[in-house]
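Tokens in:
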């Protein structure tokens, strides 16, 4: 592709390329695994969380707050810098609307006059309308499945849907998501962006006069609306501006607004009006009257100021949060151990020469491979009665073990009689002792010497 082609590529074409990339990326990503781990997976049925091809148990969800902080900081940063760039360039609702309205309804079924005029749908062609809706329902079903793959990985999803009786919830979720996509894209349309989406409500608080937006340049085009958005005239008065009142920017607008009235809540920053005006004004050898720029840049005739206090502050905090997330993800534990005491404080061994305490140890292998596990006590006077042998656990497998620890009736009993003593247990993978281990402190109860000798 030559530099010239890139320079003249419309915003519309760039957006469509990005739409295709995002769609392919979202569809393919859940299928990519490394040693069975996904890039992102929140599996409620397996109680697992995968991030960056690393598996975390639900007990290790300390990463979630970092992810949420990064998500919110990312939204603040992007919105302050690029306004509603997400809405026009990457939001699934915008992509679904493009597929339904521009591709199916306009290009395939001719239910709109053209891509350049989105103002009136031809409503008396029922057959085409229903067919377009049915085709889009299929698309919505694929999109809903794709969304579910981030919660039920594809390798399980296609097994589950073969057995509807056992996995009714999967079908219920699939049905709900499909209906929601249909309702938002085929019925609510751009009203979803204005009245339902919460992001639209908070974003204007993040705008400043250097935030880039779709702006009609009144200095160039002339005043069409007054400050209260009341229309004064259809085109600029002679000698007062260049807008010829062709309405190309209005007809193409999917949000059904006239950007010449100024910034409006409904504008999704799709820049279709910019492309339309560029096409019109190029016939006169003039630049577009609508551009993707900031109010300050228009006011001062300068370049957009991307580097400013707010954007720098957000990027610094965002970088810190990402580094913290990466650091914390290296702290992943490769095994987990929960310990509960039995109801009896202590017992005397069968041969009457030892005090025994019983526990339930819950081992979990959170590593990506199978390992053999065992444990030791770090107190010389406390030994293991049960279990006698190491045991194997597959990746992700949990196992409860009844553990009995003992101490010989003798000097240690004399030193600790009648008291609990804190002892340390070190559990480990026999084949990778240095890397896979965990240590826990537990109480070991000693009876009084008189009780022990009964
Ligand atoms: S005014 Fe309409 S066409 Fe222009 S960017 Fe906003 S939503 Fe898109
Ligand atoms: S497309 Fe340009 S010239 Fe035509 S009405 Fe809109 S702003 Fe004016």
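Residues out:
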């Amino acid at each position: 592709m030559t530099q010239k082609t890139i320079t003249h590529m419309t915003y519309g074409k760039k957006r469509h390329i990005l739409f295709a990339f995002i769609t392919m990326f979202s569809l393919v990503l859940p299928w990519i695994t490394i040693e069975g781990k996904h890039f992102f997976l929140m599996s409620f049925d397996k109680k697992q969380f995968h991030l960056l091809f690393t598996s975390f148990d639900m007990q290790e969800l300390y990463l979630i707050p970092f992810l949420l902080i990064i998500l919110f900081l990312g939204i603040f940063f992007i919105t302050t810098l690029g306004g509603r760039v997400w809405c026009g360039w990457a939001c699934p609702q915008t992509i679904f609307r493009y597929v339904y309205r521009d591709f199916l309804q306009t290009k395939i079924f001719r239910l709109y006059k053209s891509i350049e005029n989105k103002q009136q749908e031809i409503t008396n062609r029922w057959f085409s309308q229903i067919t377009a809706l049915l085709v889009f329902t299929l698309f919505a079903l694929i999109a809903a499945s794709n969304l579910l793959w981030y919660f039920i990985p594809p390798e399980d999803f296609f097994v589950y849907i073969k057995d509807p009786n056992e996995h009714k919830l999967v079908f219920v979720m699939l049905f709900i998501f499909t209906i929601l996509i249909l309702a938002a894209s085929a019925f609510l349309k751009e009203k979803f962006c204005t009245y339902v989406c919460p992001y639209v409500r908070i974003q204007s608080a993040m705008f400043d006069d250097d935030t880039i937006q779709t702006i009609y340049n009144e200095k160039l085009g002339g005043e069409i609306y007054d400050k209260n958005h009341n229309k004064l005239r259809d085109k600029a008065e002679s000698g007062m501006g260049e807008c010829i009142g062709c309405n190309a920017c209005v007809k193409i607008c999917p949000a059904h607004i006239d950007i010449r009235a100024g910034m409006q809540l409904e504008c999704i920053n799709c820049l279709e009006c910019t492309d339309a005006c560029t096409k019109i004004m190029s016939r006169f050898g003039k630049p577009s009257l609508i551009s993707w720029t900031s109010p300050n840049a228009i006011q001062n005739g300068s370049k957009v100021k991307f580097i400013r206090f707010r954007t720098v502050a957000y990027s610094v905090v965002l970088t810190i949060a990402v580094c913290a997330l990466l650091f914390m993800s290296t702290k992943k534990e490769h095994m987990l151990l929960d310990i509960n005491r039995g109801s009896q404080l202590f017992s005397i061994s069968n041969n009457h020469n030892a005090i025994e305490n019983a526990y339930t140890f819950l081992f979990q292998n959170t590593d990506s491979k199978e390992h053999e596990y065992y444990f030791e006590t770090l107190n010389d006077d406390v030994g293991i009665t049960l279990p006698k042998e190491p045991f194997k656990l597959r990746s992700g497998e949990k196992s409860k073990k009844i553990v009995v620890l003992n101490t010989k009736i003798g000097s240690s009993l004399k030193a600790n009689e009648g008291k609990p003593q804190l002892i340390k247990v070190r559990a480990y993978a026999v084949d990778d002792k240095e890397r896979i281990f965990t240590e826990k402190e537990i109480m070991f109860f000693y009876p009084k010497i008189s009780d022990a000798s009964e």
